[in-house]
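Help wanted!
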Amino acid sequence: MTDNYYKVLGKIITTLALTFSLFHFIAQDGEKLFKANCASCHNPIKNATGPKMQGVLQKWQDAGEGDLIYEWVQNPSKLYNSGKSKMAKAIWDWSPTAMTPQGHLSKEEVESIFTYVDGYAPPVAAVVGGADSGSASGASDDSSDYWWWVISFILIFVLFAIFGVRRELSAAIAVKEGKEIDPKRTFATSAREWFLRNWFVTMLLIVGIALFSGVELFGRLYQLGVYQDYMPSQPVAYSHKLHAGKMAIECKYCHHSAEKSKHAGIPSVNVCMNCHAIVHEGPQYGTEEIGKLHKAAGYNKNKQAYNLNEFGKRIEEPIVWNKAHNLPDHVFFSHAQHVHPNTANIDCRQCHGPVQTYTLGRVSTIDEVNAYAKTDEGMEKGLIQLTKPLLTMGWCIECHNKKEIDLTSSGYYEEIHNRLKLRADVNNNIFEDDKVTVKELGGWECAKCHY
Ligand code: HEC
Ligand code: HEC
Ligand code: HEC
Ligand code: HEC
Ligand code: HEC
Ligand code: HEC
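Answered by r_m:
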């Protein structure tokens, strides 16, 4: 009787522990994905750069577009342009900033995000403490993780305690019934027997633990050295979608050193002031964000004049933009070599993705670049498809091996071509497949890219 009772209790607890960790795993997956991909623009319960997310799935389902919402998340402009979604049409002009396509997420992953936001409740601490919600929610995330570990630990402890008690009881019953107790019968042997008897639960437990730790480990390793999709926050809500997209301002108008130097450079506030000395109001933020430009430039919009100090110099406080792209110090990369019309003449979007649809600058993903390369616009710009993650060595090397050089385009190449003809080692290579790539010009030599 007692034996059975503990057996059942043991089973219940193991099952509970399992479901808890499994549930935690799924919920956290959605939470992680939301934080990594959506939280820069969306809040579950408040409008931000993007609209609030709670109940959105229901809204689209009610409109009969429960399936299209996944297409939206994966590629908003594609769904919008297809004209088949009235929900996409309805939300498109919600903000002048474009939603970043999330094509790297599977339907299941997006589902897990909606599960997370629909179950989201604001952290209590933020309300009680009246603390800034950003930092409060950050803190509670860490501690919730911590509490899961504590609960798991307690469950395991209880499980072992029950084994112990059960063993004592069996021993006591055995003594009472006058049975012999096997002195060699240790906790380990009982445990083994228990596991053998309950092989199904054991198997589930092992698979569960392996899966959980495997995915955790993989997730952590995967973050190492991969910069794709990184978008730091910025002091001003600047939007490429508005400036380079809607207004179609040339990339090089602002990033004007790209053709001449190693760095493309971030424009100084003076470049912004070419227009914002006149344009004082934006469609989304009114005068708030442009006001920051005026402050940085030391511009008084009422007087239409710059503030000057006693020496007649402008009083400026430069805007400090955060860098999204960052190659390690041991790598040499020059924009001029890649974008100048007389050199590689590669379009910015080959390496930065469809920036004209982004708000803030960010490291694109290879999937976005490839998706854009397939569009009419991308083909017109001569973009090629690559496979390695952006900013990795594999990415540089792959392109240097694939990107053909148009030897007829300029005097520069004629001269290289002539030099190449004299090199027996590369000669075969060229005339074998009739292609000259950067590799043949030495683009695979370590010293070209490493200091
Ligand atoms: C760069 C900012 C940005 C990111 C990142 C982003 N979104 Fe959006 N999202 C928007 C904007 C802005 C809109 C409103 C549409 C518009 O104005 O073009 C929107 C709209 C939506 C809508 C439609 C809302 C409605 O009310 O119909 C859904 C659904 C959505 N986003 C889901 C997501 C999910 C899921 C993620 C993360 C995987 C995500 N978004 C990441 C900016 C973003
Ligand atoms: C061949 C690939 C490639 C092309 C083409 C390219 N970039 Fe870059 N870009 C990079 C890499 C790599 C970095 C990171 C450089 C670093 O961290 O040193 C970068 C960094 C940047 C930065 C950050 C600031 C800086 O200068 O480091 C800006 C802005 C930028 N690129 C804009 C542009 C613009 C605008 C164009 C087109 C005129 C362009 N890029 C073309 C690869 C490219
Ligand atoms: C060629 C002209 C031009 C340049 C250069 C320019 N802007 Fe703008 N910007 C505009 C116009 C026009 C608007 C308002 C658009 C509208 O009302 O639809 C605007 C709007 C804005 C807004 C308000 C967005 C909103 O939705 O409220 C911000 C912020 C902004 N610009 C930042 C910048 C920054 C930062 C720079 C410099 C890096 C810059 N702009 C350079 C023309 C320009
Ligand atoms: C009106 C000025 C303006 C125009 C036009 C413009 N940008 Fe930018 N760009 C900025 C500013 C300001 C930043 C810094 C803030 C940010 O990251 O959004 C920036 C940031 C970037 C970054 C991220 C740099 C880093 O590593 O931090 C890239 C890449 C970039 N721009 C590429 C482009 C491309 C490609 C185009 C053309 C499609 C373009 N930009 C057009 C003003 C501009
Ligand atoms: C989209 C294709 C592409 C990518 C990505 C790319 N490159 Fe290049 N790269 C080229 C082309 C094309 C040339 C040839 C330019 C020329 O004619 O001098 C070149 C030339 C170079 C050169 C000069 C080689 C020489 O022989 O003088 C260096 C250095 C270089 N790239 C470094 C890099 C680094 C570092 C990266 C990665 C961070 C990178 N490239 C990514 C296409 C690319
Ligand atoms: C076309 C440019 C290019 C060439 C050629 C090149 N590398 Fe790299 N290499 C890079 C870039 C970019 C990185 C940084 C990758 C990162 O941070 O993930 C890198 C990183 C490395 C690293 C550090 C690994 C790491 O993960 O940080 C080593 C080691 C290295 N390269 C060795 C070499 C050797 C050896 C050669 C010659 C056989 C070579 N590279 C040729 C661009 C190049």
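OP: Thanks! One thing I noticed: The pocket of heme C (ligand 1) is lined by residues 37-38, 40-42, 49-51, 56, 69, 72-73, 87, 91-92, 94-95, 97-100, 102, 105, 110, 113, 359 (CB under 6 Å).
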